[in-house]
Write a structure and sequence with these properties.
Belongs to the peptidase M4 family. The chain has 8 helices and 11 strands. By secondary structure, it is of the alpha+beta class. It folds into 2 domains: about 110 residues, Elastase, domain 1; about 160 residues, Neutral Protease, domain 2. A hairpin with a 3-residue loop joins strand 10 and strand 11. It is globular, with a radius of gyration of 19 Å. The structure holds asparagine (ASN) and zinc ion.
Length: about 325
């Protein structure tokens, strides 16, 4: 079997390395070493005890259980996205284990990152279907791990809303990457298909149009603002981390649409480099994060570049910058 040697410095297990062969424009054979994920899926068997019973690793064939196999495939697609887009090998950037638990609780209507693993409920079947059915949800949870590994953003108020927003941004980008979509082709939704047919709604959140993802008798209306003038002051939800995230989400969408093409290549790279530069304060607010993205764009693309203009226009479009 072929074994690829990776550039020094990546630090992941060579046994988990794939050699990808492709033909370039000139018809030449190109070999590329690509790391593989190390996924471990466990089953909580409808209890709320973690990690649960291990049901699938890289060595195993599909489990035949829908949630298990969806989680396994979704983590694989998310791993491939972070590698292709940013050269990052997984949550710890060193190819470490991606741990997930499925069938958490009974009719559990959520998914979360607990600091160590991603955890997915089955949904109650009335409002929500299973949380592994959406790649953007799986990637959202994995991205919480990336954020934590990058120094973290305190999970309350504006830094918490930025933490949430970064998970939505990378969640949406993972889905776009797996579908080969450009910014203008994409729907920019988180959790499309996660509601049952009984719910009036298309997804959990919309990055393009925060506040429009659902409007339902039981769930109410999507509470997300898309501009600072509508910022929600609340003690609920850690100071509205899943609500006010609509503002930075829309700033990213505006930036990505202005640049066009594949959103992860420029807009996504700027947001990713800003998160992982190691210079963000864990309590950074929207304005501080916005300035940091502008600095990243300037460092990457130069003063007066199209990218710098697009980033500034994105943040000013949501009232965070002049
Ligand atoms: N689905 C939510 C999230 O990942 C769960 C939570 O708020 N803990 O943000
Ligand atoms: Zn989240």
């Amino acid at each position: 079997a072929a074994r690829a040697t990776l550039e020094a410095g990546h630090g992941y297990d060579p046994d988990l390395t794939r050699l990808q062969l492709s033909i370039d424009e000139d018809g030449a054979l190109v070999a590329r070493a690509t790391p593989s994920p190390d996924r471990v899926i466990s089953d909580a068997q409808n209890r709320e005890t973690l990690p649960g019973v291990q049901v699938r690793t890289e060595a195993d064939p599909p489990a035949g259980d829908e949630a298990t196999d969806e989680a396994f495939d979704g983590l694989g697609a998310t791993f491939d996205f972070f590698w292709d887009a940013f050269g990052r090998a997984g949550i710890d950037a060193a190819g470490g284990t991606l741990a997930a638990t499925v069938h958490y609780g009974v009719d559990y209507d959520n998914a979360f990152w607990n600091g160590e693993r991603m955890v997915f409920g089955d949904g109650d079947g009335e409002v929500f279907t299973g949380f592994t059915s959406s790649l953007s949800v799986i990637a959202h949870e994995l991205a919480h791990g990336v954020t934590e590994f990058s120094g973290g953003l305190v999970y309350e108020r504006q830094s918490g809303a930025l933490n949430e927003s970064l998970s939505d941004v990378f969640g949406a980008l993972t889905e776009q990457h797996s579908l080969g979509q450009t910014a203008d082709e994409a729907l920019w939704l988180i959790g499309a298909g996660i509601f049952t047919d009984a719910v009036q709604g298309k997804a959990l959140r919309s990055l393009a149009a925060p506040g429009t993802a659902y409007d339902d008798d039981v769930l109410g209306r999507d509470p997300q603002p898309g501009h600072m003038r509508d910022y929600v002051e609340t003690e609920a939800d850690n100071g509205g981390v899943h609500i006010n995230s609509g503002i930075p989400n829309r700033a990213f969408h505006l930036t990505a649409i202005a640049l066009g093409g594949r959103a992860w290549e420029r807009a996504g790279l700027i947001w990713y480099r800003t998160l992982t530069a190691g210079t963000l304060s864990p309590t950074v607010d929207f304005a501080g994060f916005a300035r940091a993205t502008l600095e990243t764009a300037t460092a990457e693309y130069g003063e007066g570049s199209e990218e710098v203009d697009a980033v500034r226009a994105g943040w000013s479009g949501v009232g965070v910058m002049e």
